[in-house]
């Protein structure tokens, strides 16, 4: 069987070696800043805005005063992307939460004609590895149990996630299915939601068989004893997820990491762009973020400025090729 691994989606490009630096020399710290989360509360984009941005940027004295967080769901992040490009193109006080899901949707033209050039890619500060989870009392005790159901009658095992059909969460489920030898990938019953919180409720309530998402999205409910992790899509176990096994440990060679990052409007000045790059870099290398990152199940991953811009463009190319292979796009 062909080896299937999406590690290439997270390692091609330069992983920046960052040093803690103050805000750009000569530029005052920005006040009245805003972080736009392209989905509702409870998901990864919301976490990115509220913790490393709003919480730590103020705590580390990298911005002047509090940062406002605004949730704007719709079109898998497309509504927010369009809003930034068409309405906030020169807003130097705005940053937007981004992830591998953002690159996936650009690659698959989910955002229409918008492309990587329409924003400025600031930096990444963590890797959120994928997970497949079920409710605590679900009949699926192992990943093999779920895979067997997908082979025999996939309609009875709806899988939910926070990406659109063909998006990042859907891709993770398809890659596991393909690794398991399932050839009719369109038979997988995937149901999209606009954020991870809503999707997880479907699993907890018993209306869906499994959730495919990211580690940071499940920590709260996992600690509350409402979920069981069938697999972590990482090379090694994630400490925050306890004794949860990786897919690789169970014979499924699938690794999928969702980087957590920010972009800014394309029309801002180079000075403002470098300011945000420096701010994100400082957060990423702070002890405070390291502690919170580990607590929330994120692995270390950093890339900034021009390096990150190149990384994102490579991601988009790779996702486009993978999507064609899986029959998601032509």
Distance between the termini: 24 Å
Shape: globular
Number of helices: 11
Number of strands: 11
Overall tally of structural domains = 2
Cα radius of gyration in angstroms: 19 Å
Low-confidence stretches: 1-22
Secondary-structure class = alpha/beta
Question: Judging by the overall fold, what is the CATH architecture of the largest domain?
Answer: 3-Layer(aba) Sandwich
Helix content: 25-40%
Question: Could you give the order of the helices and strands?
Answer: HEHEHEHEHEHEHEHEEHHEEH
Largest sheet, in brief, is:
11 strands, mixed
> Strand fraction band?
15-25%
Kindly provide the name of the CATH class of the largest domain: Alpha Beta
CATH topology of the largest domain: D-Maltodextrin-Binding Protein, domain 2
CATH superfamily of the largest domain: Bordetella uptake gene, domain 1
Chain-averaged pLDDT: 91
């Amino acid at each position: 069987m062909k080896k299937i691994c999406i590690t290439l989606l997270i390692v091609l490009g330069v992983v920046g070696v960052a040093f803690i630096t103050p805000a750009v020399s000569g530029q005052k710290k920005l006040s009245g800043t805003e972080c736009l989360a392209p989905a509702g509360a409870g998901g990864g984009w919301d976490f990115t805005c509220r913790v490393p941005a709003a919480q730590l940027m103020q705590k580390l004295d990298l911005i002047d005063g509090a940062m406002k967080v605004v949730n704007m769901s719709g079109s898998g992040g497309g509504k927010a992307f369009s809003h930034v490009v068409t309405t906030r193109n020169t807003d130097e006080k705005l940053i937007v939460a981004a992830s591998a899901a953002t690159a996936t949707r650009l690659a698959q033209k989910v955002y229409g004609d918008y492309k990587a050039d329409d924003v400025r890619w600031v930096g990444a500060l963590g890797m959120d590895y994928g997970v497949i989870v079920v409710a605590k009392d679900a009949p699926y005790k192992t990943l093999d149990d779920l895979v067997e159901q997908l082979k025999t009658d996939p309609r009875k095992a709806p899988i939910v996630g926070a990406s659109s059909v063909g998006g990042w969460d859907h891709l993770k489920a398809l890659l596991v299915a393909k690794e398991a030898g399932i050839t009719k990938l369109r038979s997988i019953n995937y149901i999209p939601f606009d954020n991870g919180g809503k999707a997880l409720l479907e699993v907890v309530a018993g209306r869906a068989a499994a959730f495919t998402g990211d580690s940071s999205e499940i920590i709260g409910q996992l600690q509350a004893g409402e979920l069981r992790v069938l697999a972590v899509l990482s090379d090694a176990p994630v400490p925050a997820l306890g004794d949860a096994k990786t897919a690789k440990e169970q014979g499924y060679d699938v690794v999928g990491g969702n980087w957590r990052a920010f972009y800014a409007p394309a029309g801002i000045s180079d000075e403002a762009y470098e300011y945000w790059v420096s701010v994100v870099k400082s957060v990423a290398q702070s002890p405070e973020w390291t502690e919170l990152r580990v607590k929330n199940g994120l692995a270390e991953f950093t890339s900034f400025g021009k390096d990150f811009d190149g990384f994102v463009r490579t991601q988009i190319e790779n996702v486009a090729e993978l999507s064609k292979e899986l029959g998601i796009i032509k």
